Amino acid sequence: MNSFLPAAVIFDMDGVLVDTNSFHVQKWEALLTEYGIAFDREALPKQVLGPGNDPTLRHFFGDRLTADDRLQLSEELEARFRGAFAPHAKPFPGVERLIAECHEKDVRVALASAAMSKNVFFILDALKLRQCFDVVLTADEITQNKPHPEIYEKTAQKLGILPAACVVIEDSFAGIEAAKGAGMKCVAVASTFPATELRAHTQADLIVNRLEALELENLRGLF
Fold first, then answer.
1. What is the mean pLDDT of the chain?
2. Which of 61, 78, 202, 220 has its CA 20 to 30 A from that of 2?
3. Mean pLDDT over residues 203-210, rounded?
4. What is the mean pLDDT of residues 181-202?
5. Going by CATH, does the domain composed of 21-87 fall within 1.20.120?
């Protein structure tokens, strides 16, 4: 069977386009400490990186918060994040080159992030990448967070491309599960979790240590 390039490459944002994850973990550590909620510092990254704020708040706070409380806390969390992250905004090495390769080969480019729109566009503007994406989908447009596949299913719909012709680039367990659940190929980048863990505990089709090691031509072998 002849291999071919994907019709679209869909990027996750945090941990794929940009190194934001340490800032996200720090904001959760500060919040949980402030509210006196016990947490396992070693386990925390897996708990908070990938799913959106709402399910994470429900996980840690249980029934103590109303929906309005969770919304307000989420806004506070992300305001803290933006303030801490702004001076450090720069894309991972290889991001701009890979996006340029997609445009050169007429491969559509999309972004699908479980972050709120305010954060997504703040980061895209800080990185000067907003105009690079044909489609951007955020947590504000979905009802179910990763690992549910809704965000990737809707991204394919907005692109007008079958999921089976798409490749997702992800870094988190929840994100990889969402991509595979949508029927897409998935490249896992070991920017957040070790490649050995990704290989052992996910169904990623390809695992790379760094995005700069990935070229568009590498994706032919996935089809």
1. 93
2. 202
3. 97
4. 96
5. no
> 63 is written with which tokens?
């029934």
Identify the DSSP state of 160: T
Q: Using the 8-state DSSP alphabet, how is residue 219 labeled?
A: G
More confident position, 45 or 160: 160
What length is written for the chain?
Answer: 223
Residue 17: strand, helix, or coil: coil
Q: Extract the tokens encoding 43.
A: 């386990």
Contact of 161 with 7, CB cutoff 8 Å: yes
- Give start-end residues of each CATH 3.40.50.1000 domain in the chain: 8-19+90-222
Which helix or strand (DSSP H or E) is residue 206 part of?
A: strand 206-208
**Tens digit of pLDDT for each residue in 98-129?**
999 999 999 999 999 988 898 899 999 999 99
Task: Please state which CATH number belongs to domain 8-19+90-222.
Answer: 3.40.50.1000
The maximal CA–CA distance of the chain, rounded, in angstroms, is 57
Range(s) within the chain of domains with CATH label 1.10.150: 21-87
The answer to pTM > 0.85 is: no
- The DSSP line for 118-134 is HHHHHHHHHHT-GGG-S
Residue 10 C-alpha from the chain's centroid: 10
